[in-house]
């Protein structure tokens, strides 16, 4: 994307918006009106320095807690503490909404190099290696056999993509294959047919963003444990060695949502949310520290100017999103019918600092609220080219299913951007840190969020 110039400390931003009426036959026969708003004072306080300061704190929390902020871990608990402290300093009363869920997947609980490798010993789970898929709990101790690797030069490889790669493979060994060329399912299936007890997929190593740990998807049931590993760990294992690994069920995850309210006399509420949990493979700074920073700064700056909205604004920081939208689903399910009807709109903020960004506004979901046009028009007024997002793989989904209007903001994950590169090449990887953020985009999206919130709440 071409670089854009933006003065974060906006001088006078007054966007007069025509009132938008939506026939309310589907939603309780009530028209929805978006008012004109002057958001200058609030937007002036939302600086990239403030936003990046939150992200640096979240990265430091991850680094101090095993490299991640996954739901149910100390990293997530410390993230909740940090956001709550910021809200309380601004004068908010907070609520922690505890819940639990059973993870239906499996977890890599131990991985140890027990062979003749010079660096034998424990390896960091979530930082050096992690589970991609497994059908049932398993314990495997076996020699590692490299399969058609290319560790030098361009590192292009068909490793594990052809049955001939496994000719002479010792049955009962662990297959070490290299990422690239074909789907992970193909590598897994061919390795299992050759008698592999487990499969380790090392990163390809052909670029800086393809050396670390990564998250891979298997569309087929993993008949043997399939692990993702860094390029460096794979290169070490390729020299020969023996590995002992254990896959188990993670059982119940106990975690919590964090909620804070800015009251309003209008009897209705705007809910603004971002998931505070991340994946186990990295610090989760774009996904979704960026959304958390945007929502948090909106809350802090509304408090700083002593905003008096007509509608209440509820700020929600969800947990369990990466495991299956558990936090937002729990929140919606515990609402009474009256509470559900009182929600004017839910605004979701997920990944809004992507390094190859496309500024997307949620629309075309079938549950649109006219605030999406407000946020779109605000971005366009700053010279930003916008697009729409209508996916349902984030925390707005349970609100849509409960017939609550939604919108939100997003700048891209692993789908291609206009320059051909993924929107976020570090999506679900260890490199999703503060250096993975486009600060300018984050500032623009945070401004658009605050402007949209004020438009509806006013």
What Rg, in angstroms, do the CA atoms define?
A: 24 Å
- Please write the string of helix (H) and strand (E) elements: EEHHHEEEEEEHEEHEEEHEHHHEEHEHEH
DSSP summary, beta strand count: 18
End-to-end distance, in Å? 34 Å
Strand order, sheet with most strands? 3-12-14-13-15-18-16-17
Structural class: alpha/beta
Mean pLDDT: 88
Q: DSSP strand (E) fraction? A: 15-25%
Largest sheet: 8 strands, mixed
How much helical structure, as a percent, in the residues? 25-40%
Overall description:
The structure is a single chain. The chain is α/β, with parallel strands linked by helices. 28% of the residues lie in helices and 22% in strands. It has helices at 40-45, 48-63, 74-89, 184-193, 231-238, 285-304, 321-324, 326-333, 337-341, 371-381, 397-401, 439-457; strands at residues 14-15, 37-38, 94-102, 107-113, 121-122, 129-133, 138-146, 174-178, 198-202, 226-229, 242-248, 252-262, 269-275, 312-318, 343-349, 359-362, 386-389, 406-410. It has an eight-stranded mixed sheet with strand order 3-12-14-13-15-18-16-17, with helices on both faces. Strands 5-4-11-7-8-9-10-6 form an eight-stranded mixed sheet, sandwiched between helices. Strands 1-2 form a two-stranded antiparallel ribbon. Helix 2 (48-63) runs antiparallel to helix 3, helix 6 crosses helix 12 (439-457) and helix 10 packs across helix 12 (439-457). The longest helix has 20 residues, at 285-304. Mean pLDDT is 88; it is low at 1-33.
Task: Give the helices and strands, then pairings.
Elements: E1 14-15, E2 37-38, H1 40-45, H2 48-63, H3 74-89, E3 94-102, E4 107-113, E5 121-122, E6 129-133, E7 138-146, E8 174-178, H4 184-193, E9 198-202, E10 226-229, H5 231-238, E11 242-248, E12 252-262, E13 269-275, H6 285-304, E14 312-318, H7 321-324, H8 326-333, H9 337-341, E15 343-349, E16 359-362, H10 371-381, E17 386-389, H11 397-401, E18 406-410, H12 439-457
Parallel strand pairs: 7-8, 8-9, 9-10, 13-14, 13-15, 15-18, 16-17
Antiparallel strand pairs: 1-2, 3-12, 4-5, 4-11, 6-10, 7-11, 12-14, 16-18
